[in-house]
Amino acid sequence: MSEWLVLSLAMAAACAVVLSIAFFNHRRIGEDDDPNETPDVIEYMTMMIGVIYAIVLGLAIAGVWEGRGAAQEYVRQEAQALHEISVRSQVYPAEVRARIRSDVDAYVTYVVGTEWQAMADEGELTDRGGELLERIRRDVTDYEPQTDHEGQAYQPLVDQVAVADDARSARGSSAGATMPGVVWFGLITGALVTVGLIFTLQIRRSFREMLLAGLFSALIAFLLFLIWDFDAPFGRGISATAEPFLTQFSHLDLGG
């Protein structure tokens, strides 16, 4: 059974149970019942819907903010691993060391100058970036250490290449939007319902009430925009930055 069908049936069943109870309870009430003795259910339901929607908004903001923070951490790990490769290759012969550092610089330059924009536009990594990282891997793994000192540095260098590769893959997986469409449907529908419930409370055209209604609607719109902006960690205004690459490879002309 489709999960959408299950969701639809669950929502329909919940509505049916509540309406059935309300219908039978209304038939049971006598003619002498005074509804003024009970609290106004409209105000209570409006308040509860607002509270529930505020919780959902808070969870959504926390989720996309955490995703942005994780994306920035992947960038830091990748930049740090590449920096370690460049530094630790110092123990290798000049020719090997120069080749490793040259390929590391070429990869970093490509990531910051080209691949970063590709992630923002298309939400995915490029094949060229993978080829440049593979070249670094070959530089490190294909060399046979000639001394004990080089042998001791070999495995840590291989490990740092693996760390850089893993961080790159994680960066790629977080490049696109992470919020599912069904969540956006719930957020937008909840916003419309929450704002629409203002009109069930007999809002008047006084300046104070109209101002509060406008500010409330603007606040919800702002929070939805914030979620949308954080949802693509590399593609929108408040996005993850390439600052770790700029810091670790300051000798390169990377801009920023």
Automatic annotation (TrEMBL):
This is Integral membrane protein. The lineage of its organism: Bacteria, Bacillati, Actinomycetota, Actinomycetes, Kitasatosporales. Keywords: Membrane, Transmembrane, Transmembrane helix. It holds the Pfam family Bestrophin-like. It comes from the Bacteria. The chain crosses the membrane at residues 44-65, 181-204, 210-228. InterPro entries: DUF4239.
